[in-house]
Every structure is written in structure tokens, then in C-alpha cells.
Amino acid sequence: MNKSGNDLGGRLKSGQSKGWAKSPWLKLGIGLAIEIAVVGVVFFTPVRSWLGLDNARTIMHNFQGWRETLGLFAPVAYIFTYVTATVFAIPGTILTVTAGALFGAVEGTIWTVIGATLGATAAFLVSRFLLGGAIAQRFSKGDRLSKLVQGLEENGFWFALSLRLAPIFPFNAVNYLFGLTPIPLSTYFFATLIGILPGTFAYSWLGYSGMDALTGKPPWQLVAALFALAALSATPLVIKQFNSSKLDNTLS
Asked: Is the overall model pTM greater than 0.85, yes or no?
């Protein structure tokens, strides 16, 4: 009895410890602690000069000079670049961070949301009317597409919005996948426009606060931006509480 009770207790403790070790919240906390530690090391130790951050500051000042030279055409050039990158499925994270450094957190968010939404819409239309067959063949293995269609049929706008809010789903792949579904263009457009706002602002703020830190200001805004990104990475955990398991498995 004792032995069996001890074995059971041991198994329970082992299971609990394994569950805790696999907890996404624990991973989130560890990731955030690492990010803050990296910021501290980079900006408050000689590592700053070893990494050549002063050179990075010079490069960003050159970009700002380019922005001032273009004047009102700078946002247009940026939006065009973002649309092109999105259509060709080039990840836009670096562009978003750069927009924050060049235009500021709020203005950078505005131009990025416009560029990303227009680019995503263009990719959607290309998938629906031009390359649907080839793209469908690309995603024919597994049941990702059928799960996506099923989720849209059951929840429509909210399902599409959930996919946009959850940063774990690849933005460019979702653009082309949506083109293969019966989702109305207007639903897709507004779900994209609204859904990418939080993530876009977080990365734009990261660029803005990083630029501030490079100019010698205390990096507290940078730390706050990292907190925002950490909170954003928890979005899938929250969404999972309010949606069925189909969302979790759609693009797995």
C-alpha cells in the first residue's frame, strides 16, 4: 500500500513538474526575462561598442536623411515597398521595425498597416484568380486548407480575425491560403486591417524605442516595447480559451 502510494505520488509529482516545464506561460516568462537581460547587457555594458551600435545609429540617421529628402513621398515609397514584399511573401518584420525608427511608433504603424493590408489583399486576389491551382497543390498535403474552410464557415470574420491576431501563424502563407477559401473579400480585408494592428504597433514601437536607445536615451521604452511583444506572443494562449481546437490546428 505504502509502496503503491509512493509510486502514485511520484508519478503525480513527475507529471506536474513535466506539465509545469511545458507550460507556455513559463516559456513566455523565461523569454521575457532573457529579452530584458539582453537589453541590459547591450546598453549598459561595453558590449554596446563591441557590437558597433554607434555604426547602427549612423545608418539610421542616413535613413532619416533619406526620409526627409523624399518628404511626402517617403510614406508612399515605404508603402509600395511593403506591398511588394508582401506579394512576394518576404517577411515584413524588419520593414515594420524600420518604419518605427523612421516615422515614429504611431505613424510607422499607420503606414505599415496600409502597406500590409494592401499587400495581403493583392496576394489574396492573386491566389483566388491567378495562381489558385498551384497554391492549392502546394498546400494539398494534410488538411490545413479544409480546416481553414471549416473554421471560416463556422465563425467567419471572427475566425479570420483570430488568425491575424495570433502571431504564430505565418502572415504571408495565410494571405495565399485565404484566397483558396470562399471568404468574401470585404471580410478578409477588414479582418486583416484590424487583426494586424496590435502586432504592427508593437514592432513599430520596438523600432522607435530602439532608435531612441541608440541615441543615448534610457532604454525604458525599449523594455516596455519588449513587454508589449511578450504580451502579444501570449495572444494564441488567450484565443485558445475562446475558440475550438480547430484554430490551434489549422496551420500546424
From this structure: no
Quickly tell me which residue has 480575425 as its cell: 161
3-class secondary structure per residue, the chain: CHHHHHHHHHHHHHHHHHHHHCCHHHHHHHHHHHHHHHHHHHHHCCHHHHCCHHHHHHHHHHHHHHHHHHCCHHHHHHHHHHHHHHHCCCCCHHHHHHHHHHHCHHHHHHHHHHHHHHHHHHHHHHHHHCCHHHHHHHCCCCCHHHHHHHHHHHHCHHHHHHHHHCCCCCHHHHHHHHCCCCCCHHHHHHHHHHHCHHHHHHHHHHHHHHHHHHCCCCCHHHHHHHHHHHHHHCHHHHHHHHCCHHHHHCCC
What is d(CA 189, CA 187) in angstroms, rounded to the nearest whole number?
A: 5
Task: Output the nine-digit C-alpha cell for 171.
Answer: 502572415
Half-sphere exposure of 47 (CA within 13 A, CB side): 9
Sign of CA dihedral 152, 158, 159, 161: positive
Q: What is the mean pLDDT of residues 136-152?
A: 70
pLDDT in tens, 187-221: 999 999 999 999 999 999 999 998 888 777 777 88
| Between residues 100 and 39, the one the model is more confident about | 100
CB 227 within 8 A of CB 120: no
